[in-house]
């Protein structure tokens, strides 16, 4: 080969290497940053937002699972109607929460409170109805309303805050339904 051909090949190879280095430098520095700072590339939630995700998922999971239990263990048509309503609404709320959560944030699928399930499992008839209305309908929704209000007022993640604001009237409506059901059935509040 002629010396000019070799020089041309060297110059071309050098240009390719330089171009490749320029292309991959941002990627490599991003990898280095991710290794130095584990938060890069993975979303983190504030304590308020994280608490909301945990409470909201546990509330919805518990509502759905105890409502299914109510359909089996209650003989009261009003309690069963309330339970069916809870299954439909809390299933929708769970989907909305998952959609609002930042990408990469794990939203628990089944986060049911085992203590509530255990308290209700051995009960049937009127005893079940009273416990279900009081523990799940009223107390559970009071906790949920507080969590959704806190997120709506002080949440840091805009999407979660918006989801809480949108869902709050539904949760408040559930509490009102439970209170009305308790009054109708003579369950102490």
UniProtKB/TrEMBL annotation:
Keyword Cell inner membrane: no
Keyword annotations of the record: Signal
Native species: Chitinasiproducens palmae
Keyword Signal: yes
Protein name: Predicted outer membrane protein
InterPro entries: DUF4142 (IPR025419), Ferritin-like (IPR012347)
Residues in the signal sequence: 1-34
DUF4142 domain location: 49-181
């Amino acid at each position: 080969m002629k010396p000019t051909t070799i020089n041309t090949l060297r110059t071309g190879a050098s240009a390719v290497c330089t171009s490749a280095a320029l292309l991959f430098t941002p990627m490599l520095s991003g990898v280095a940053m991710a290794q130095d700072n584990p938060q890069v590339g993975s979303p983190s939630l504030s304590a308020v937002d994280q608490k909301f995700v945990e409470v909201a998922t546990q509330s919805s999971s518990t509502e759905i699972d105890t409502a299914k239990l109510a359909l089996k263990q209650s003989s009261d048509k009003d309690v069963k109607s309330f339970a069916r309503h809870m299954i439909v609404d809390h299933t929708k709320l769970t989907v909305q929460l998952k959609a609002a959560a930042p990408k990469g944030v794990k939203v628990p699928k089944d986060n049911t409170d085992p203590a509530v399930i255990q308290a209700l499992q051995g009960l049937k008839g009127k005893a079940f109805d009273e416990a279900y209305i009081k523990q799940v309908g009223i107390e559970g929704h009071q906790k949920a309303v507080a969590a959704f209000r806190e997120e709506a007022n002080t949440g840091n993640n805009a999407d979660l805050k918006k989801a809480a604001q949108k869902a709050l009237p539904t949760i408040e409506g559930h509490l009102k339904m439970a209170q009305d059901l308790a009054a109708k059935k003579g369950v102490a509040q």
